[in-house]
Amino acid sequence: MIRSRRWLSLPAIIAVLAAPVAIMAARPSPSDPRSAPARQQSPSFRAGVELVSLNVTVTDAAARYVTTLEKDDFNVFEDGVKQDVTFFNKTNLPIALSLMIDTSASMDTKLQTAQEAAIGFVRRLRVQDAAEVIDFDSRVTILANFTNNAPELEQAIRKTSAGGSTSLYNAIYIALKDLKKLVAKNVEEIRRRAIVLLSDGEDTSSLLPFEEVLDLAKRSETAIYAIGLRAGEGSPESKGFKEAEFALRQLAQETGGRAFFTNQSLDLAKVYSQISDELSSQYTIGYTSRNPRRDGAWRRIVVRANGQQLIARTKQGYFGPTSH
């Protein structure tokens, strides 16, 4: 059965700004055999240590994922200063993921294809991963709370239906808050965070401005993978969609994710597959900053991988700690 269906209308977003939505994570019970891999494969660190955690994707000149590197193959720089890597993992840490689907009226003829592509994606999640399903149009609806139950996620995806306008920024805000609360419940567990969102148009009804959502995304340690479904070939793109494309690209670039754009809904299964492949090919690298200042300033991060024509991609930076 799908867990409590929750939706947030536009007025409700105001309440979210004052008091973020409470999330009850759906975790396997101790008697559930599926819970064992998560306990065995989840490294931990002591709470209170200000570890800068990076999810790093490495590709070669042919854009193939490189998954055989070791700790010494990476150099991490913060504001130009080389850092000492104190945590390194390449065994695919668990993922906490928000799967977001645009269900505005313009998705009507494309929604069934989008549903099947999204279902194919959740079927590739592992038992130690947890995902939620969010659809958004005029309102934001959480159809399934975080769970590793693939049939439950599939059932939630099939419940989506098209209608209304597009509250993309509201939806991203809610997903970021949900992911933060889930991870906060397990502070000693290192779990990668990601948003995978599909949208076919511009934001038309959010209360939140893009700049505020981008700022939250940069503070969230969440990689955003954005899929933009353009108008069909030969159809002119509106000014609004071009603005939406810029927004999706910036969200992905700043957080270390990727943005994909396609004219055909039939390409969605391939795109979701590419995202799944990337999430299963990442390294997790951690370091304690050499910068002692607690000024909350933005710190730029660059990661380089040793090897000919290797490209390392991660989030572009983070906000430093504060004294309060």
Description:
By secondary structure, this protein is an alpha/beta fold. The protein is built from eight helices and 15 strands. The chain has helices spanning 10-18, 35-41, 111-122, 150-158, 168-184, 210-218, 239-255, 268-279, and strands at residues 6-8, 51-59, 74-78, 81-83, 85-89, 95-102, 130-136, 140-147, 192-199, 222-229, 259-262, 283-288, 298-305, 311-313, 317-319. The chain is globular, with a radius of gyration of 19 Å. The protein folds into two domains: 50-91 and 283-319; 93-279, Rossmann fold (3-Layer(aba) Sandwich). A seven-stranded mixed sheet has the order 1-8-7-6-9-10-11, sandwiched between helices. The chain starts with 5 loop residues before the first strand and ends in a 5-residue tail after the last strand. The model is unreliable at 14-48 (pLDDT under 50). Helix content is 28%, strand content 27%.
Please identify the top-level CATH class of the largest domain: Alpha Beta
Q: What can be said about the biggest beta sheet?
A: 7 strands, mixed
CATH level-two architecture of the largest domain: 3-Layer(aba) Sandwich
How many strands appear in the DSSP assignment? 15
Order of helices and strands: EHHEEEEEHEEHHEHEHEHEEEE
Secondary structure layout plus pairing:
Blueprint (H helix, E strand, L loop, with lengths): L5 E3 L1 H9 L16 H7 L9 E9 L14 E5 L2 E3 L1 E5 L5 E8 L8 H12 L7 E7 L3 E8 L2 H9 L9 H17 L7 E8 L10 H9 L3 E8 L9 H17 L3 E4 L5 H12 L3 E6 L9 E8 L5 E3 L3 E3 L5
Parallel strand pairs: 6-7, 6-9, 9-10, 10-11
Antiparallel strand pairs: 1-8, 2-12, 2-14, 3-4, 3-13, 5-12, 7-8, 13-15
